[in-house]
Every structure is written in C-alpha cells, then in structure tokens.
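ingest -> validate -> predict -> emit
validate: passed (alphabet ok, no gaps, 129 aa)
predict: started
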Amino acid sequence: MTLIDAPALAEPRDLAPPPRTLAIGKGALLAWLENAEPGSRIEYHRGFLLLDRHRGFSPFPEHRRRELVALADRLLALAGTGWVLLVQERHGECDYSYVAIKAKRRAPCQAIAIGRFEEVSNGAPHRHG
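emit:
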C-alpha cells in the first residue's frame, strides 16, 4: 500500500485575507423585511464586524464603513424588537458571515411598521422638551 504525501500546510502569512463585503444596502434590507417569509435568511456582511465597523481598523473607505455601521445598528435595533434574529457563521479566522433571519410576525399591537424603520433603527428614544 502506497501512502500519498499530504501537501504542506500553508503558513498564515501565505493565506489570502478573508473577503470583506457589505452584502446589502438599506433599500435591499427594507425590501427583504417587507417581502421575506419568516425563517428567510439574508447575509448582510462578511468579514469581522467588530473591526470592519471601527474607524481605525476598517478596510472600507469611510463612507462604506459608515454605511456598514448604520446597517448593523439598524439590524440590532430590529433584533431588539423581535423582527429579526441575528446569527454569525464562522468560515475561518476573522471570517464570518453575519446573517439576519426574519422572525415570526409579531401581533399587530406589538409590531413596528416598516415606515418607522428609521425612527426605530436609530436605537435611542426620542425626547421632547
């Protein structure tokens, strides 16, 4: 029986950096929220969100970094209201898919209208006076 030599493992410095993408924009997210069935999934980012959204470490130009921050913040606010579930899928070191899963629809008295998306997604209550 002949053994086949396994290829040498690549050194970390030889590996290409993981892909980093902002997979969807605000318009696509709104359309998905409006039309997706409960249980539907959408990838909104691939990379390492903690670093990719940080001004000092993000590989994105500043306008794209701000877009990523706004999208991630909107989704976190929506997760807090029960509209979506947020999950991560690990592909490798510092390489994750960030996925939103449409949650089961809430009762009408608890639902947040899609038209109020901007108000809800800013995350802070509005103070008057």
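The chain has four helices and four strands.
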